Structures are given as structure tokens and as C-alpha cells.
Amino acid sequence: LTKASLYEEDFPWTIVDGHVYAIGEFIAQHPGGPLIRRAIGEDASELFHTHHTSVRAAVVLARYEIGQLAGAKCLGMPKKRTFQ
Q1: Strands 13-16 and 19-22
Q2: What span, in angstroms and rounded, lies between the C-alpha atoms of 54 and 40?
Q3: Which residues, at least 6 apart from 29, have a Cβ–Cβ distance to it below 8 Å?
Q4: How far is CA 36 from the centre of its chain?
Q5: Which residue from 4, 13, 27, 44 could staple onto 39, CB 3.0 to 4.6 Å apart?
């Protein structure tokens, strides 16, 4: 996936460590409330790692993975699936 293609999408997405996530279904469930909205349409790697230190948060996020950002090194997050 490319950032250009993501900007054309009509759903809330974010990037963490090179992985792309469709987070629309999770926004209302996010335990941190509206803070997650800062991640929409952005690379939220720093934001995610600043507020989430448990493996549980990474596992929850992995449920929403839709692919990997083209050219990104995807480190530190559990892989769910990859689209090209």
C-alpha cells in the first residue's frame, strides 16, 4: 500500500511501524477515548508506542491490519497479513 492510495480511501486508517490498519470499527471501543483520532491518516508509530507498552495493545491492533506500507520496514508489531 502507498500513502497516496491510502489518502484516496474513505475509511479511517493509520500506520504503525510500517503496518497499515483500518481503525474505523475500533475508534468507539478505544480505551483511551478520543486520543486515537490523532492517529487517523497519519503514521502513528510514536503515538502508539508512547501510550501502549503492553503486548495486548499490539495484539488488539493486529486485528485491524490491512497491509504494509510500500517500502517500509515492518518491525516491532505482530504481522497478521500482507497485501501488495
Answers
A1: antiparallel
A2: 21
A3: none
A4: 10
A5: 44
- Only one residue has cell 499490539, namely 58
pTM recorded for the entire structure: 0.82
Q: Which three cell numbers stand for residue 59?
A: 495484539
Return the closest-CA partner of residue 22 out of 3, 44, 40, 43: 40
3-state secondary structure of 39: helix
Per-residue pLDDT of the chain (84 residues; tens, 9 = 90+): 888 999 899 999 999 999 999 999 999 999 888 899 999 999 999 999 999 888 889 899 999 999 998 877 766 554 444 444
